[in-house]
Amino acid sequence: xxxxxxxxxxxxxxxxxxxxxxxxxxxxxxxxxxxxxxxxxxxxxxxxxxxxxxxxxxxxxxxxxxxxxxxxxxxxxxxxxxxxxxxxxxxxxxxxxxxxxxxxxxxxxxxxxxxxxxxxxxxxxxxxxxxxxxxxxxxxxxxxxxxxxxxxxxxxxxxxxxxxxxxxxxxxxxxxxxxxxxxxxxxxxxxxxxxxxxxxxxxxxxxxxxxxxxxxxxxxxxxxxxx
Length: 227
Hints:
By secondary structure, the chain is α/β, with parallel strands linked by helices. It is built from 8 helices and 7 strands; from the N terminus they run H-E-E-H-E-H-H-E-H-E-H-E-H-E-H.
């Protein structure tokens, strides 16, 4: 466990921080809304493989061992070397898309939250078209229903779909905006919860979240050194 935690921290220090902060030029608004202790859920839009790097770069190094991005098992665990790297270095929580009868696709997510992790979810389910928000899948509601005291913090990232869209292998050095919204609580009405989460994403995307219009852009702070 200690070795895995160290590998993940090295990955973030040597890859995620440099790529996100220097190659991309990450500009973050409302970093103070980001949960630094678990159990917690961060829900983000998904346009690029760079999304995980960008999200990791938002957290200070002391929190990295508890940050776990959920990712599709059928993609990231399909080859032995990729599975080892994804689980031990990137630290993914595998989600079983197309699970068989009797299998709960979110079982590993339950375990992560029970351990007090900060779980990163992509409610769209897969990488969508560049800079487009796809319809959110309801798996996140089923997860929050099981853990009703765990809040969901929405994060909308703009620019990663242009920097490294689906099918690209080398990211372009573009500026990326990250908007962090206020946390969302559980609602027993699934449709109402999903609509609230969708509205939060759209509000962040369109720049109408509370205080966004009047908040000056953040510069290239080192992770955890500024808001």
